[in-house]
Amino acid sequence: MEENKLLFDNNDSDSSRSKFSAEPILENLENFINKGTDSLRELLIKKGISEDEINRAIKEDWLDLLVIDRLIMGASTPMNEEELLAITGMDKDVARRFWRALGFTEVPENEQIFNEQDIEAVGIMQSLVGTGFVDEDRAVQLARVIGSAVARVAEAQVTMAQSIEVPETALESAEILAFVLDELVPKLSWLIQYAWRRQLQSVLRRIRMHRYEGFESSQTELAVGFADMVGFTYLSQQIDENQLTEVVSRFETLAHDTVVAGGGRIVKMIGDEAMFVADTVQQAAHIALDLVDIYADDELLTDIRVGLSFGPVLAWDGDYFGTVVNRASRIVNIANPGSVLTTKEFFDTLQEDESVEFRVLRPRVLKDIGRVDLYSLQRKGVDPQISTGRLSVRLKKLTEVLRELDELRDHGQKLVSNARQSDSSNTEGSKLNSTIKGLNWIVKQIDNES
C-alpha cells in the first residue's frame, strides 16, 4: 500500500493534499501583483530560474514565455533533438513518430526545446516496447490516444481560466501567469492522475466482470446509443459565439450527467451529438428516455432524438466500432424530434421490460447497412407526443409568440389609422391593412392549433 501511495504522489512533497486546501485564489493573486516584480522574481528563482535568465527575458520582452515554459515543464538544461537522441539512444525516425503521435509538430534539429522530462518520456516508451508489453505500432497508437485526450484537457483548462483577464504586456501577464500556474498546475496534475486511475479501475473491473460471458477481451456485447440535438445547424447560424458556447456546454452537461446517472458511459461528444454505451439494454433504454424528457423540459435547447442498437462491438482505444455502432448512428438521423428508435436486436432483448413499450415501425433501407427493422421506444402508458414537460415548454413559447404577434398587430393598426388620415398615404395604408389581415389570420390559425 505504501508503494502505491508513493507512486500516486510521485514522491513529490508538493503533491501532498495539504497543498490543495481551498484558498481565495483571486484574492491571493491581487496581493501577489501588488507586491510588484519582486514577488515574481522571488518565485521564479525559487523554481530554479537564474537571475541572468530572468533579466534577459525582461529586457527582450518575453518574460511571459519564460514563465510558461519553466513553470509548466520545469527549470532544466535545454537540449536539441540530437542531444536527446544521444542520451536515450532512440532512433530519430522512431522518436519523431512518437512525437507526432503525441500531437506535436516536428522541431528544427538545432532548436533546444527538450529537457529531462522528455528523456524520461522516451525512456518509458522504450521500456514499454523493450519488455514486450506492446510492440512499436501499438505504443505509437497509445501515444496518439494519450496526446489527443490530453490536448482536449489542456484546451478545457485554458478555457476555464479565461475568466482571469491577462494584460497585453509581457511583464504584467508574466505576473498573473506565474501565480496561476504555480497555484493550479500541481492541483490539476493530481486531479488528472486521480481521474485516470479511477477510469482504469472501472475499465478493468468491467472487463473482469465479463470473464464468464465468453467474449474476447476486445469484443463484448453492449447497448450503443446516439443522441442528436434537432436543428442545431440552423440554431448555430442564428446566435452569436457566446450563446453558441452556452448551448454546446448545456448540451454536453445534460448528456453527460444523464448518461452517467443511468449507469452508462459517454464515449464521445461530436458537436450536437453524443455517443454513449451501456452494459444492458435496460440501462440504455431508460437513459434514452430520460434524455428525451430532460431536453424537452430545457428552455435553452431544442428536442433531441435517440437511436439505440445492441450486440457485439469492437472496443479499440476508448472507442467502439462495428455494425451495431453504425446502425445506431444511422437510425438516429431518421428519428423524429423527441423520439427514441431502436433496432430489432435491441427490441428482442428488452421485450420483457414492463416499464417500457414499443411501436413497430416501417422497415427502412439505410445506406451501406441495408434493410433495418425499426421500433419506437416509449415509457409504458405515456404518449411521447403529449408529454407534460414538453407540452408545458412548447405552450409557454407559443404564448410568447402570440403575445408578440398581438403587439405587432396593435402597432400595425395604429400605423394604418394614421396613414388613412393622409390622402397621400392611401397606398401605404392599404399595404399595412393587408399585413394586419395576414397577422390576424396567423393568430387565428395558431389559436385553433393550440
Please provide a written account of the structure.
- The strands form two sheets. Strands 1, 2, 3, 4, 5, 6, 7 and 10 form an eight-stranded mixed beta sheet that branches.
- The protein has three domains: 2-204, no CATH class; 218-386, Alpha-Beta Plaits (2-Layer Sandwich); 389-449.
- The protein has 17 helices and ten strands.
- Helix 7 packs across helix 9 (136-160) and helix 12 (241-261) runs antiparallel to helix 13.
- It is of the alpha+beta class and 450 residues long.
What are the key terms here?
disordered N terminus; about 450 residues; Alpha-Beta Plaits; eight-stranded mixed β-sheet; alpha+beta; flat; two-stranded antiparallel sheet
Map the helices and strands:
Elements: H1 2-9, H2 25-34, H3 37-46, H4 51-59, H5 63-73, H6 81-88, H7 92-101, H8 116-130, H9 136-160, H10 170-209, E1 219-229, H11 232-238, H12 241-261, E2 265-270, E3 273-278, H13 281-296, E4 304-316, E5 319-321, H14 323-331, E6 340-343, H15 344-350, E7 356-360, E8 364-366, E9 370-372, E10 374-379, H16 388-420, H17 426-449
Parallel strand pairs: 4-6
Antiparallel strand pairs: 1-3, 1-4, 2-3, 4-5, 6-10, 7-10, 8-9
Global shape = flat
What portion of the residues fall into strands of 2 or more residues?
5-15%
| Radius of gyration over C-alpha positions, nearest whole angstrom | 30 Å
Biggest sheet architecture = 8 strands, mixed
Low-confidence stretches: 1-19
